Amino acid sequence: MDPTRGSAILRVLATSALILAALAVLAWPLSRLGVIYSESRGGFRKSISLIDGGLQLHSEPLGTVRPLDRDRFGISTGSAGGGVPTHLWPTVVRPPPGTSITVVVPLWLLIVTSVVPTLWLVLSWLRRRRRRRRGLCLCCAYARPGTEAPCPECGTSPKDAEIRTRPPIGRLIRDAGAGVFLVLLVLSGSAWLVVRADQHSLDVHRAAAFDYSWYLQACQPKLNGAVQYALPGPGPESLANIVRTAGPGTTIVLLPGRHDLGDLRYGPSAGGMGQLDDVWLLGCGADSTTLSLRIQSATGARIEGVTIDCGNNDFADFRESCTLSLRACRVQNYNSGAGGSNAIFAAGSVLLI
Fold this sequence. Notes:
32% of the residues lie in helices and 27% in strands. By secondary structure, it is an alpha/beta fold. The strands form four sheets. It has a six-stranded antiparallel β-sheet with strand order 4-1-2-3-6-5. The chain starts with 6 loop residues before the first helix and ends with a strand.
């Protein structure tokens, strides 16, 4: 059999193996530092990281996606998102309830696997040496006289057979070097694209600040048609009891009088009612309906047609991604007397007033 048959395919495999081995060797010191590419979009966070001598692929859901959240792309250093150690063998981790998955491949395995196709060079060299020692044709292994005449079987001269069966070590190294250069060039371009994608996402996010329809979509509650009426003062039909029992999507009409919702900055475990989610508090007018409350978290909450009595405090203290809409409201008694006069404190939140 002519040993040159299929040599092109073997040469491609060997070149690819050398490129993979070289990249794995270059990635090893980076894995000790910890290099992570991560993206957050579509409700999922995905990352590809070189960490602890391994290549980690991680995917997990983001949970509740708030209107303030934007797509994020970035390259950083540190620990991987999955927090899975690198073992001597590939590892797949899917903790219950199976919403996230982490795949870890050790770099040494990539190096060893990539070396296998290069054994073709060693086998070619050994086969060539054995045929020369036995006086056989280097191309077809046919017995030939010890002359410079062409092989009687394949017609190849000794000089041509020497050239055709010589392992292309120099060519493989040259092609592998060019392949590594191209891969590094592509990775550099990809890093630039990642920076551009994150900047574009940030620009779109900032541009949304001038889009009134975006504010409407972000701040308006998602109602389900349920309507309840709250009587002023304490009692089973007070606003505090209705908010505690009504689910998201409820419209609560505040009848004329004074309503006290209390302090919602603490959850039920601390004796409070927690946050306002998709609730419309509709008063009968700022002149006839008064509301006192303190809230720290709200998502899609709308307050309309009331006078908000702050009680010498700020009635809203938002320190995370919150959305609140105020319409036809009057705010009073927000001066604490301690040098501050804020009715609303908000950081990283959306307010539509």
